[in-house]
């Protein structure tokens, strides 16, 4: 049985990990609609008849949004004690990290057709690139740490286990004593 003095610490840690996972999912949602790659010509990113920014949606379609929604569902299930959901949250973090590292990083400095027209064109990572990377890292951290901590769900019942009859050693001893007394009374 878990030491009751450690229970608030574990619950607090689980709450922090839940907030970490929630932040990761929200960052993925925001990254879907912010610039992942920004092309500048000289000092401006506004070029007539040219698209100089690519958002997470432009580059990945609904993938980041769907991944964020999946992460929210897995986080909810993980906090209820599902080890499969904890592992799923970890995998969602790995997939979310693979998107910026495998699909965005190789193209982060490509200027495309704008570079053919303007020699001073440069491409750099935008805010969305960092948001999707941080979001994936937070999901990975949350899922991995919840998996390491184990199955104790964050529920009122888990927090109130000391109040449940028969859950403490004293209650078990008194229940055994009452059982012996009943058997003795029947024997007489």
Structural write-up:
With 188 residues, the protein is mainly alpha-helical. The chain has 2 domains: 7-154, Butyryl-CoA Dehydrogenase, subunit A, domain 3; 163-188. Helices cover 64% and strands 8% of the residues. It has 8 helices and 3 strands; from the N terminus they run αββααααβααα. It has helices at residues 7-32, 56-60, 63-79, 83-104, 113-117, 127-149, 156-159, 169-187; strands at 35-41, 53-55, 121-125. It has a 3-stranded antiparallel beta sheet. Helix 1 packs antiparallel against helix 3 (63-79) and helix 3 (63-79) packs antiparallel against helix 4 (83-104). The protein is rod-shaped.
Provide the fold topology:
Blueprint: H1 7-32, E1 35-41, E2 53-55, H2 56-60, H3 63-79, H4 83-104, H5 113-117, E3 121-125, H6 127-149, H7 156-159, H8 169-187
What structural category do the secondary elements indicate? Answer: mainly alpha
| Helix-strand topology string | HEEHHHHEHHH
Q: Roughly how much helix do the residues carry, as a percent range?
A: 55-70%
Give the CATH level 1 class of the largest domain: Mainly Alpha
CATH overall fold name of the largest domain: Butyryl-CoA Dehydrogenase, subunit A, domain 3
For the record, the count of structural domains works out to: 2
How many beta strands in the DSSP annotation?
3
Q: Give the mean pLDDT.
A: 83
Overall radius of gyration: 26 Å
Q: Major sheet: order of its strands? A: 2-1-3
Described by the principal axes of the CA atoms, the overall outline is rod-shaped
Low-confidence stretches: 156-167
Through-space gap between termini? 37 Å
How would you characterize the largest beta sheet? 3 strands, antiparallel
By CATH, the architecture of the largest domain is named: Up-down Bundle
Number of helices: 8
Q: How much of the polypeptide forms β-strand, as a percent range?
A: 5-15%
């Amino acid at each position: 049985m878990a030491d009751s003095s450690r229970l608030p610490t574990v619950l607090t840690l689980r709450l922090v990990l839940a907030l970490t996972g929630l932040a990761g999912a929200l960052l993925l949602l925001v990254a879907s609609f912010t610039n992942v790659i920004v092309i500048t010509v000289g000092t401006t990113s506004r070029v007539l008849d040219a698209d100089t920014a690519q958002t997470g949606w432009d580059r990945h379609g609904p993938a980041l949004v769907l991944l964020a929604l999946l992460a929210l569902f897995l986080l909810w299930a993980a906090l209820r004690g599902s080890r499969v959901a904890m592992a799923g949250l970890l995998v969602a973090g790995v997939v979310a990290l693979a998107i910026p590292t495998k699909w965005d990083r190789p193209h982060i400095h490509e200027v495309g057709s704008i570079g053919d027209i303007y020699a001073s064109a440069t491409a750099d990572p935008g805010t969305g690139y960092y948001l999707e990377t941080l979001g994936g890292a937070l999901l990975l951290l949350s899922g991995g740490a919840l998996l390491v901590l184990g199955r104790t769900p964050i529920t009122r019942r888990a927090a109130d286990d000391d109040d449940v009859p028969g859950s403490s050693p004293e209650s078990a001893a008194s229940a055994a004593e009452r059982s012996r007394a009943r058997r003795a009374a029947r024997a007489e």
